[in-house]
Structure formats: C-alpha cells, structure tokens
Amino acid sequence: MTKLTDHFTLAEFTDSQVAMRRGIDNTPDKRIVENLKHTAQQMEKVRALLGGRPVIVTSGYRSPKLNDYIGGSETSQHMSGEAVDFVCPRFGDPMAVANKIATSDIGFDQLIYEGTWVHISFLAPAKPRRQILTWKPASGYTPGINA
C-alpha cells in the first residue's frame, strides 16, 4: 500500500470499479503520481477543516481512456491527478461540506457541489482560481453553491 499522506493512499485516488470491470488500465505515470501527492496534501487540509473526519474519495485519477468511457470532460483535471470527488458523511451532506470549504482559506482551483458529492481540484504551483460552482443535470453549471 503506497501512502501519499497520513490519511490517503495511492489506491484511494486510482482504484476504479468501472476500470476494473472494463479492463481499462488506470495506472498513473510518475508525473501524475506527483500531482496526486500534492492533491492528497491539499485533501489533508480539507480533512482538517472538516474536523478531522474521514473523507471518502469516490473518484480521483482517471486515465484518458477511463475518463472518455465515463463521459468526463475532455479537459478534466481528474486526468492530471489534480481533482477529487468525495464525501464526508460524518461532517454532513455534500452541500454542508462544499459550503464549509467555500468559506475557508483553502487554495482550491475549482469547488463544485454536485448534489451527492463534492468535486475539488488543486493546481501546483499555479495560482488557484477559487471557482465555486453547482452542477445539476437540468441546468448544468451555475456560479456559487445552490440547492
């Protein structure tokens, strides 16, 4: 088991049931592993902000083939190891998590409330945009965090 940080492993950021079922290789290269280390370090800050409660990664790194298969954006930061979809049930629902992060000083690039999970991305060493969005199937992306 390769640890990226005290609370996150490489497997948490790379394992994919879809990839396993479809025989898609989701192994990151060295550059992406370095990005995943940075992302995991930033997720430690998120975890601390959420009272040290466990964060459950639902999607981390996606190989281009996996990203294409699931219909991800062609520019998805998941493909570079800079984005994570996650939940933190012991803190609260995804809206509560997103609101807590949005009002913090964590240097995220994007924070997207996606209804049943939160998407967050980090850039290293670029200056983060701190873009805050909500995504809904009916309306797509809208600014801010909206119910």
Keywords:
147 residues; alpha+beta; six-stranded mixed β-sheet; 6 strands
Helix content percent band: 25-40%
Question: What percent of residues are in strands?
Answer: 15-25%
Number of helices: 5
The chain-level structural class is alpha+beta
Reading the helices and strands in chain order gives: HHHEHEHEEEE
Ends apart, CA distance between termini: 38 Å
Biggest sheet, in brief? 6 strands, mixed
pLDDT under 50 segments (min length 5)? Answer: none
Overall mean confidence score, pLDDT: 96
Supply Rg.
Answer: 14 Å
- Topology, number of strands: 6
Strand order across the biggest sheet? 1-2-4-3-5-6
Overall, the morphology is: globular
Can you walk through the features of this model?
The chain is of the alpha+beta class and 147 residues long. 32% of the residues lie in helices and 18% in strands. The protein is built from five helices and six strands. Strands 1-2-4-3-5-6 form a six-stranded mixed sheet. A hairpin with a 3-residue loop joins strand 5 and strand 6. The radius of gyration is 14 Å and the shape is globular. The chain starts with 9 loop residues before the first helix and ends with a strand. The relative contact order is 0.14. The mean pLDDT is 96.
